[in-house]
Write a structure and sequence with these properties.
The protein has 246 residues and is of the alpha/beta class. The protein contains nine helices and eight strands.
Amino acid sequence: MTEQAVTAQVTAATNVDPNEIAKFAALAEQWWDPNSEFRPLHDINPLRLNYIDERVNLPGKKVIDIGCGGGLLAEGMARRGAEVTGIDLGEAPLAVARLHAEQSGVEVEYLCIPAEQIAAERAGQYDVVTCLEMLEHVPDPASVIRACAALVKPGGQVFFSSINRNPRAFMMAIVGAEYVLRLLPRGTHEYAKLIKPSEMAGWARESGLQVCDTVGMSYNPFSYRAALNRDVGVNYMMHAVRPEAS
């Protein structure tokens, strides 16, 4: 085993929060129920899927989804013609993802492996890397972003999403969504782990990525409608590219 691979395994082993894994494992069976606590995820999934597809033209692309959970995005990209790998550290959500893909006749490779480890094993093998609603659940998001940058080919594209860290986001994404409207289980998000767009962009650039676009994403809990806009005050997505070698 190379020194790089050993370093990746050590980093991966420490960049895990068991409490975060347990949160989503407890909800795994509800992942594909559009009327469950995952309804907001079902409602925003077509929006984020379209955002990605419009920029990369998914058919024929080799894609890896980091923190795939129960497979909503991974399976959606596969349905659009991409060759998809989904990775997660939760065995329960992965079991649900595998079962749903099998029942739906959709082919997705699902692996229980840290981002840092697969980045050491498959560096530069993917046209597209997605890492959505995951970075705010790990101790070291910058490490995951470095792994994403390592996984994508030169000229390839990377997509991140998270929740901004400010008083408005705290009131809407945590107090409102988790405690008042109960759209999400209480404790799903911790304010200190939320990520400002400037922080994410900085980590992306430090990893050798070029940020192309940052877009806000709003969700109306009463009409169940999601929309993209330029307000990144709460939820947002970021599109980056790994420049071609000069």
